[in-house]
């Protein structure tokens, strides 16, 4: 069913800017672009793919700090977010790919590392295992997969450190409204990644979990980015005009109150998961 769902985060330029800011703040919080356990296994002529690559920012940034002998390929169902080819490093290309379907045979067994980040809003009930299988088919024996997701189902507002902070009530309200709407629409859920990877036969599986409030000085920016995603998606969802959904006007009223929460010092908090594993040699 989720195969037919529209892409609720949208592709407007403000969303693309949000994706770039998100890249930098997530990377700083997590502390690496490629997990050190994976980085040390990559061969001299590593081939690396990013699936659901969005603008291609992760590939471009990894290319900048990697040997020029590495080759990077990004795949996305839509090219609407792609950075122009001439602004990409010369060893990075972006093209079409749908992770819900098996990839073309010629791509099977070609890659040393598959990266996936932040596609949870396009998933739903019963699609995680098959999506993972589609991606694993791309790996060489002994190849690595790294999957980074935000668990927004645990997200809520929190009272900030200063005495004038609100309790973050409207930050929580917006997030809970989006979560419950998506859960009802297409079974939006967050899997147990360690189990998902282990059940798929991956080896040396590891999972790093960090919190968006890990560094106090990041709380405001994570909240700003979160407000953009939550209320942007609620605005897009409002167009479905179904019973119990907020109208565009209601979304805007709640958004302004959530911004007041943030300005008072309250913040939105969720978990970041990086899971990795290797295929057998
Ligand atoms: C939130 S963006 C994240 C982009 C990028 N991974 C990042 O972290 O900056 C999710 C991306 O997944 C893509 N996407 C959604 N469904 C897809 C599918 N079935 N196959 C490939 N890409 C898909 C969307 O087009 C969008 O670019």
Automatic annotation (TrEMBL):
<dbReference type="GO" id="GO:0032259">
    <property type="term" value="P:methylation"/>
</dbReference>
<dbReference type="Pfam" id="PF13489">
    <property type="entry name" value="Methyltransf_23"/>
</dbReference>
<dbReference type="InterPro" id="IPR029063">
    <property type="entry name" value="SAM-dependent_MTases_sf"/>
</dbReference>
<dbReference type="GO" id="GO:0008168">
    <property type="term" value="F:methyltransferase activity"/>
</dbReference>
<protein>
    <submittedName>
        <fullName>S-adenosyl-L-methionine-dependent methyltransferase</fullName>
    </submittedName>
</protein>
<keyword id="KW-0489">Methyltransferase</keyword>
<keyword id="KW-0808">Transferase</keyword>
